[in-house]
Design a protein that fits this description.
The chain is an alpha+beta fold and about 250 residues long. It contains 10 helices and 8 strands. β4 and β5 form a beta hairpin. α1 packs across α6 and α7 packs across α10.
Length: about 250
């Protein structure tokens, strides 16, 4: 057999090895999903949403993430997190991510407020989301594809975030499947947010959307946000927002 034939066999066997690894991961994730799904939302609601203590340090963050796991995170995972989680400060009006860039990190807000926006076909800013403390932040499409995105993320006030690099995050998923439990709950939070936002844009009128936001747990946060951003967030003109505020 020639060199080209050996190379072909080598690549062929590597392909199947990689494929088996892939299905092993899929199988593990499927088991995780089946074991976890029935209790995930209840655990998330009782532990994540009801958690009121501040997160002021890396140890506070690790404690928070560990509380999302039904058996608490093993020490080996906590030690790994201590090594890979970094801290960054973003000044008011500074951008964490701009269109055309690749989102290479996932963030968790320690303090401050971040806003995501993009431009529509009329070159107008559209606010995608506004998040405060204890929220996970990421340019979704760009982060998970590792390709340039169209989103901007900037700080509405001086903000401090914890962050993990894309490569480090997926390495810990592969090495420690237990951490997928935590990732699942944080993903559920994100999915619930976007599902409600999409549905509310279609099922509620402008006044109802405004009242729903201001009466939610995030109402205090939106009182700190410039009105033009809040108007864009609920998809109304600034003058309409003034009327909605006066009617509430």
């Amino acid at each position: 057999m020639g060199i080209s034939g050996c190379t072909y066999l080598f690549n062929y066997f590597n392909y199947w090895i990689d494929l088996f690894k892939y299905f092993e991961i899929v199988h593990a994730c499927t088991l995780v999903f089946r074991l976890w799904l029935s209790g995930a939302i209840n655990i998330y609601q009782t532990k994540a949403l009801s958690m009121k203590q501040q997160i002021l340090s890396l140890e506070d963050l690790i404690t928070y993430l560990s509380s999302l796991h039904p058996l608490s995170l093993p020490e080996v995972i906590k030690d790994r997190l201590r090594k890979i989680v970094k801290v960054k400060t973003i000044k008011k009006r500074e951008h964490l991510l701009s269109a055309g860039e690749v989102c290479r990190h996932i963030y968790f807000i320690k303090r401050g407020i971040l806003r995501c926006y993009f431009y529509n076909e009329n070159d107008e800013e559209v606010t995608g989301w506004i998040f405060g403390e204890k929220k996970t932040v990421v340019g979704v499409m760009s982060f998970y594809t590792q390709e340039p995105g169209f989103e901007y993320i900037h700080a509405l006030k001086d903000t401090e975030v914890f962050y993990i690099a894309y490569e480090e995050l997926f390495a810990i998923y592969l090495e420690y499947p237990e951490f997928c439990f935590v990732a699942l709950l944080l993903t559920i939070e994100y999915l619930m947010f976007w599902f409600l936002k999409l549905c509310n844009l279609r099922r509620l009128d402008a006044q109802q959307r405004f009242d729903q936001i201001m009466n939610s747990d995030e109402g205090a946060l939106f009182n700190l946000v410039p009105l033009k951003y809040l108007a864009s967030y609920i998809n109304v003109r600034p003058e309409t927002l003034s009327r909605l505020r006066s009617n509430s």
